[in-house]
Amino acid sequence: MTYPLIVLPFGLLTVIVALSTLRRPHFGRRMAASAAAAVVLVALTAVFDNVMIVAGLFSYPAEHLTGVRIGLAPIEDFSYAVCAAFLVPAVYALLTPAMATTEPAP
């Protein structure tokens, strides 16, 4: 179960950073966009990981995995796509000055 342990810090970091943007403007809209991006990235990961595994480009030792798979791709592979979909916009929101993310008063 090595891969789940590798994924754990990335998942925790993603949750912490995403929640730290809770008070930033448009949190709900950002989370909805991140969720939509995550769905697309998971679909792409499912297709291309399975193709690459079938082609023999790489394999995963079973003793290092949870055993849950989507096709031939281990579920752990999908965590990086989901983390990226939520972490990148959250970091951007944190690096953008708060004044720049609000709309000007009428």
From TrEMBL:
GO terms under biological process:
carotenoid biosynthetic process
| Keyword annotations | Carotenoid biosynthesis, Isomerase, Membrane, Transmembrane, Transmembrane helix
Give, as in the UniProt entry, the pathway in which the protein acts. Answer: Carotenoid biosynthesis
Quote the InterPro entries the UniProt record gives.
Answer: Lycopene_cyclase_dom
Domain of life of the organism in this record? Answer: Bacteria
Topology relative to the lipid bilayer, per the entry, is: Multi-pass membrane protein
Identify the residues that the record assigns to the Lycopene cyclase domain, covering every copy.
12-94
One Gene Ontology cellular component: membrane
A GO MF term: lycopene beta cyclase activity
This protein's major location comes to: membrane
Residues passing through the membrane, by range? 6-23, 35-58, 78-95
- Enumerate the subcellular locations listed in this protein's record, separating them with semicolons: Membrane
Cited Pfam families = Lycopene_cyc
Entry-linked NCBIfam families: CarR_dom_SF
The protein depicted here goes by the name: Lycopene cyclase domain-containing protein
* Species classification: Bacteria, Bacillati, Actinomycetota, Actinomycetes, Micrococcales
